[in-house]
Amino acid sequence: MTTIQAWLRRALWDVVPRDHRDGPEALRRRRLVTVGFVLLGALVLGSSLRIEPGSSLFYPATLGLAAVWTVGACASGPLHLGRIDHRSRQVRPIVTPIVLGLGLAGVFVAGGLVVRDVDFLDRQVSSVLDHAAEGSLPLLVLITAVNGIAEELFFRGAAYAAISLHPVLWTTIAYGVATLATGNLMLSFAAVLLGLVVGLERRASGGILAPILTHVTWSVTMLFVLPAVFG
């Protein structure tokens, strides 16, 4: 096995032993809270991305969405940061998920070079980038990071813990379906691919820290790079 393969196995596949499990009553409560907030979040997400680029409503709407995910995650029950194996010991995942986020961004950039030649798909991506073109860049970076954190708190925190069987699959689907509320197929496709990677990180590490760092790294990188690709 090569060094890269071993690194990927530790990051995405080898499960670190852990003992935090919900009891039957706590699990039932977490599931009810999760279902309610995923429906609410889908409505808020759909509304926020249908706001006209440049509108002053865009910022409070997207921050409101982050608040929905965060409140839902905290209301569902305890969340854990997680650990991964590193040199015969377990450590908090920091560098590895950031590198994964950059690598995933590279994959999306390569895909973007193909997508921009297809009119329908190009319009789908450009409709999302219109908000970045019209907004304040520092504020957009902040909002992008905050929303990435909030989404992982909810989907890889609350939702993942609420599902007993195949949580990687079902949280990936839930994240993609929630994103479909935007009416943007490319955004939903990106959500599915990102959701699969961070879901595997959640499974391997047993916590939300790795998914958060990968998601934020990926989304902030996309914010800076995609306008150049589709400009």
Q: What keywords describe this structure?
A:
231 residues; mainly alpha; two-stranded antiparallel ribbon; 9 helices; globular
Structure description:
This protein is mainly alpha-helical and 231 residues long. It is 75% helix and 3% strand. A two-stranded antiparallel ribbon has the order 1-2. Helix 2 runs antiparallel to helix 3. The chain is globular and about 45 Å long.
Radius of gyration: 18 Å
Number of DSSP E strands: 2
Mass-distribution shape: globular
Range of strand content: under 5%
Largest sheet features: 2 strands, antiparallel
Record the strand order, biggest sheet: 1-2
Please state the average pLDDT score.
86
Terminal Cα separation, in Å? 41 Å
Topology:
Layout lengths: L2 H10 L11 H25 L9 H19 L7 E3 L2 E3 L3 H21 L3 H16 L2 H26 L4 H14 L4 H21 L3 H22 L1
Antiparallel strand pairs: 1-2
Short précis:
This protein has about 230 residues and is mainly alpha-helical. Helices cover about 75% and strands about 5% of the residues.
